Amino acid sequence: MLEILRKTIKAGCQTTKYPAVPDIAPEGFRGKPEISDKCTFCGDCIKVCPPGVIWFTEKSGEKTLSLSYCGCIFCGRCEEACGYGAIKLTQEYELASKTKEDLITSIRSKL
């Protein structure tokens, strides 16, 4: 017992101060995808999304592109398929929410 205590004191604190001090994701980390206003609503991202969590809706001539983080596997295929650079994977990974509706992001077409 004393041997374990001695080793623990010698090693010191090995954990981070998370969540008080945010943990930075490493370079190349595939985090939350974000849709920018560069979107042309071509649908290429929808075609390549393996879990099918990107979709279009059209109402009164206005198109909406939505993405749900609930089923997203953060593969990056949508970013690769977008020839306009409208979808980018970010370093953000904290996606906790109380409702599924909070985990849906949308962008509307400009009329």
Quick recap:
Helices cover 18% and strands 22% of the residues. The protein has 111 residues and is α+β, with helices and mostly antiparallel strands. The strands form two sheets. Strands 2-3-5 form a three-stranded antiparallel sheet, with no helix packed on it. Strands 1-4 form a two-stranded antiparallel ribbon.
Order of helices and strands: HEHEEHEE
Give the strand content: 15-25%
The tally of beta strands, per DSSP, is 5
> Which CATH architecture of the domain at 32-108 would you pick?
2-Layer Sandwich
Q: Report the CATH C-level class of the domain at 32-108.
A: Alpha Beta
- Rg calculated over all Cα atoms: 20 Å
Q: Could you list the spans in which at least 5 consecutive residues all have pLDDT below 50?
A: none
Q: How far is the N terminus from the C terminus?
A: 71 Å
Helix content: 10-25%
Shape: elongated
**Mean pLDDT rating:** 90
- Report on the biggest sheet: 3 strands, antiparallel
**What count of helical segments does DSSP give?**
3
CATH topology of the domain at 32-108: Alpha-Beta Plaits
Tell me what you see in this structure.
The protein starts with a helix and ends with a strand. The protein is elongated, with a radius of gyration of 20 Å. The protein has 3 helices and 5 strands; from the N terminus they run αβαββαββ. The chain has a domain at 32-108: Alpha-Beta Plaits (2-Layer Sandwich). It has helices at residues 2-11, 44-48, 77-81; strands at residues 33-35, 54-59, 62-68, 87-89, 104-108. The strands form 2 sheets. The chain has a 3-stranded antiparallel sheet with strand order 2-3-5, with no helix packed on it. A two-stranded antiparallel ribbon has the order 1-4. The chain is α+β, with helices and mostly antiparallel strands and 111 residues long.
